[in-house]
Amino acid sequence: MRKASALTRFVASGFAVAALLCGCGQTPEPTAGSAAPPYVQAPAAVAGAYQARGGDPISLPAGSVYRNPASGRDEVVVPDMRHTALLIGDSQSEPTEGWPRLGLAAVGYKVHFCGLGGTGFVASNGKTGNYIDALQRGDWKLPYGTPALIVIQGGGNDAARGATDAQIVANADRLIGALQDRYPGARMAMIGTLARGANYGGGRRTQVDALLGTVAARHGLPFVGVGDWLSKYNLAKNLADAVHMDAAGHRSLGGLLGSRLRHLGLEGPPLDGTVPVAASAPTPAG
């Protein structure tokens, strides 16, 4: 505890430099006039105690950027890692009320998001690399500690930009390997590419969803295939544009995802001591 107290005094004294900006997570970017989270390079002994407490901060303020001595990478301090799912995804997951986040919340998780719209396993958006490149070069930063669940969602931008099967598989393998190296033993799952069914105009998006299912199976990961959900559950009517949902569509898909995660045994620890209840999910069309 002496070392933790010393670190607290170190942070409070102002010797920490400004936080590196992070393109992911729950902590918003500082507004004008507000103080940025401190950059903290904590002693290894403090890091070990921090990890032993399940990732809950001892003295590092939430939002701090921490240099992990084990990986040499900057990571973000996130409170309550015991209830937190790390979600890596694209514009389907980026909104706070997006259906992947709603589905995870329905089964007891807080969400720490890493990713950005326009990206995928191969696709980048010009500012941020694809998932594995963004991770390796620090475009966004992983959380410190071990998440309760890691979820990789995406594939739509890869489908739209002509990524080949071989490119998608190679980068998905690299990403899964990097995450397993960083968080050994952590539960991990994948969510595919939202689309209409193959016989209803799903096209390349449906193909990528199926491809990601084979990747997940080869790695032994639970997979939620969503490549026919717009048709299967009559939700194309809730599209706000060609590929994104309106608010009602997000809620419906969130309910479906929550039910599927529960079926796969991927519930999180209850946030308040009660069993989380999934949002109402539609029944299959037809």
Structural summary, described in words:
The protein is an alpha/beta fold and 286 residues long. The chain has two domains: 2-76, no CATH class; 81-263, Rossmann fold (3-Layer(aba) Sandwich), CATH 3.40.50. Helices cover 34% and strands 11% of the residues. It is built from nine helices and eight strands. It has helices at residues 2-12, 44-52, 99-106, 131-137, 156-160, 165-182, 203-219, 229-232, 247-263, and strands at 39-40, 65-67, 74-76, 84-89, 110-115, 149-153, 188-191, 223-224. The strands form two sheets. It has a five-stranded parallel beta sheet, with helices on both faces. It has a three-stranded mixed beta sheet with strand order 1-2-3, with no helix packed on it. Helix 3 (99-106) crosses helix 9 and helix 6 (165-182) packs across helix 7 (203-219). It is globular, with a radius of gyration of 19 Å. The model is unreliable at 1-23, 25-46 and 274-279 (pLDDT under 50).
